[in-house]
Structures are given as structure tokens and as C-alpha cells.
Amino acid sequence: METLGYKGRDVEVVFLSDDQCLVVACDSCGAIGGKERDAVQVPPYIVGICTTRVALMEVLAVGAEPVALTAAIANEPFPTGGEVLAGVRDELGAIGKRDLPIAISTEKNIPTEQTGVGITVVGAVKREGLRVGASRPGDQVYCLGWPKVGAEVVSDDGKPIARAEHVRALLADPRVREVVPVGSKGIRVEAENLAAAVRCRVVGWQEDTPLDLAKSAGPSTCLIFTAETSPPQIAGAPIHHLGELKEKAR
Question: Among candidates 153, 49, 41, which has minimal Cα distance to 91?
Fold first, then answer.
């Protein structure tokens, strides 16, 4: 049975001491890759990038700094494993973490016909640095990127997606309260969960938004965030206004 992580986020937080926290996030990807029976055909390199990005964004979004990663690749070390790991390293490199320690496991005994990858990112943060539950009534809710899934993720359709560096850029801005990567539940559900966690609801939904609010965002191709004033502008990253947080009636 699937359970929610720390305060409804897709991470687990372990308090190692009064002021030090360990943050863990993971993502899996199956039947997507370059093998004969993969349902979605993309290079294993892209699988490595996208699967890493999901777990990495979740850790960054709660204010933690990545300190280690595990890569469980249910395929042969070469060529599939090597291509996946190249994507993992390049995604880490996008935030200056190319040399992050990685524990790696591949399938060396059984031939496989589909691609399978699991990535776990471990991060560390001081308790006061956790960016969870920081939103307040009156904050505006925004979405960065577009929800995409499957082959759409690598299509050149002019709709940019969220990246790990966008999470860092947002959290560095003092106007931004919280960032939440969107997954399979879609934008509306993620926004409502964020609001509920701080005893609020989203009002004034922008129903004319070009975004599909119910669509899966696959490997976190978009993210939502709250800001107390107008949001920062990030080059090449479209931002859409969704609504406003209002305190729930007691």
C-alpha cells in the first residue's frame, strides 16, 4: 500500500539529531528505453536524465543538498547501464554535482527485453532549512513548465519543461515560499495538497489557463510554487498563475 511521505511530500525525512535531517527521494522507470519490448522508445541516456531529475528535484525542493545517489539498473552493464549512468551524471552536472557519490547495481546474470531503472537521491539539510509548510494565506500559486508524459517528454513542441536548476533558482528568490514538483497526480491535486498542508485552499483558479490541470506530469516536467508577490522570471521557463491560497474556515 502506497503511503504519503513527509507531510504529504514525495520524500522521507529522517531527523538524525535536533538540527540535522536526512532527506530521501526515489523514482522508477520501466518499459521506457531502447530495448525491443519497451513501450516508449527513447535512448537509455534520456532515461537516466529524467529518472534522476525526478528524485533530485524532490530533494532540492525541500531545501536539502544532495550528498549521494543510488542507481539500480535492471539491465546489462553495457551498453544500457553505461548509457543510463551517462544521463545520471549529466543531470547531476546541471547543478554542479557531477562527482556526487553513486552506488550502482546492474543485472549481470539474466538477459532482459525491457529497460528498468530506479534512482534514489539522498540529501542533507538542517531542520530550520526545511522548505515544507512555509506557504501562507494570501500567497499566489504558480506553475512552471508543462505537464508531459511518455514520448511527449522528449518531443520538440515548444513547451519547455521544469528542470532541477529551476528549483534552485526559485528557492533562491526571497519571494518564493515553497516548491513542489508535479508527478502523476497532476497540477490541481498537487496544488490542493500543498494548500491543505497549511490549512488553506486554492481559490480563484485560472480556468482559462492553457495547462491541463489533471494531466500527469510524468517525470516532473512541471512544478508548482507559492510566492508572496509576483514571481521571479526565469529565462526559457514559462510561468502560469493558478490561483491564491485562502485560509480554510474553522
Answer: 49
